Amino acid sequence: MTSQKASARAHTNIALIKYWGKKDQQLILPMNGSLSLTLDHFYTDTTVEFNSAFTEDTFYLNQKKLDAIKVSPFLDLVRQLNPQAGYAHVISKNHVPNAAGLASSASAFAALALAASTAAGLKLSRRDLSRLARRGSGSATRSIYGGFVEWLPGTSDQDSYAVPIDEKVDWDIEMLAIIIDRKQKKVSSREGMQRVVATSPFYPAWVKSTNTDLIAAVKAVKQHNLKLLGQLAESNALRMHALNLSARPPFSYFEPQSLVAMNIIEKLRSQGVCCYYTLDAGPNVKVICSTAESRQIISALSAAFAPEQIIEAFPGPGAKLIEC
Ligand code: ADP
Ligand code: DP6
Ligand code: CO
Questions:
Q1: Beta strands in the chain (DSSP E)
Q2: In terms of domains, do 194 and 46 share one?
């Protein structure tokens, strides 16, 4: 009997310029490039053990046995790279709410890519890890790296991967996550973006304008221009959510409390505070701001949200191996 085990930690990332639509469902190739910030506060730890004595793949998330319906096909990709690897047991713990628009699938599949490939005896480059993570969940392709990360959309499995833009962030930028609802969303990211691509008449305009936003946002990161980056991120997020309203049948991830948070941020901005919001596929609002002004923003948000609903997150590191 042979057994090999490895554990990895990967952090979530929040897109400032969003991925919202695939040109290839199976390979997970996105319609457009995207830009994200990896966060220190939210992460996933995953242990993978390949053992020739195992008779099936098993998957435990937060100490509960779950169907390995998404994990098993992902492990098959690793087994294609090393046909000697047999079935695997996967034990994962999310330090992020599951499926609530806080990018649990990003940290999940980045951690799984690193843990599974290492346990299978492969030593993949970060580029190949990013390509592998992409096959589990598109946003995971960016969580291999820390700080600001760009996902180059590519045209094939070979050339669709992430690159670090500013990995060790040494300027004043952070994110406040406002936790409005930890519950699993009704429309998964996968289903939501597919519906939008298939039915929104505005989709071609999204791709065109997002490509333009991305070029400007990468420049803003390089220039450490928080205001410009925030403006681009907020407007790009609102366009993504407008697509959802324009789909058939239409859907929205906003909750009343999401709008309350957005209004507070807009009001602060009218008072001269540099803060902008973004939302992913869920009701939780993320605020882009500087640490210099974060106390003032938290204090304004406290009028509507409890202290435990407001989480301060800083730029975080890329995926790494940890002790089992
Ligand atoms: P989110 O906004 O949290 O990324 P998604 O709908 O994109 O929501 O993805 C959530 C899905 O990701 C879950 O339903 C589950 O299938 C998968 N997932 C979440 N955490 C893990 C994990 N630690 N290991 C494997 N898969 C996970
Ligand atoms: C709104 O990566 O979760 O967070 O590739 O189908 O697993 P799949 O979707 P996922 O979608 C993320 C969408 C987003 C924007 C983003 O992270 O770029
Ligand atoms: Co996701």
A1: 3-17, 22-24, 29-30, 34-51, 58-61, 64-66, 88-95, 148-152, 161-166, 174-178, 276-279, 285-289, 310-313, 320-322
A2: no
CATH number of the domain that residue 180 is part of: 3.30.70.890
**Do 105 and 136 meet the contact criterion of CB atoms below 8 Å apart?**
yes
The first and second tokens of residue 321, run together, are: 């191996």
CB 125 within 8 A of CB 162: no
Name the domain count of the chain: 2
Output the residue whose Cα is nearest ligand 1's atom 2.
101
190 and 287 share one domain = yes
324 falls within a domain:
no
Q: Could you tell me if residue 318 is inside a domain?
A: no
* Nearest atom (ligand 1) to Cα of 185: 6
Q: Average pLDDT of 51-61?
A: 96
**Quick one: 160 and 259 in the same domain?**
no
Angle among Cα 19, 240, 71 to the nearest 5 degrees reads 40
Encoded tokens for 29:
């190739």
Assembly ipTM: 0.98
Instruction: Determine the atom of ligand 2 nearest the C-alpha atom of 190.
Output: 6
Mutate to test the pocket of ligand 1, among 47, 48, 105 (most ligand atoms within 8 A of CB): 105
pTM value > 0.95: yes
User: For the stretch 19-54, what's the b/e string if a residue is b when 16 or more beta carbons lie within 10 angstroms of its beta carbon?
Assistant: bbbbbeeeebbbbbbbbbbbbbbbbbbbbbbbbeee
Same-domain check for residues 11 and 147: yes
pLDDT per position as a tens digit, 144-169: 999 999 999 999 999 999 999 999 99
CA of residue 141 to ligand 1 center, whole Å: 14
Domain boundary among 168, 202, 233: 168
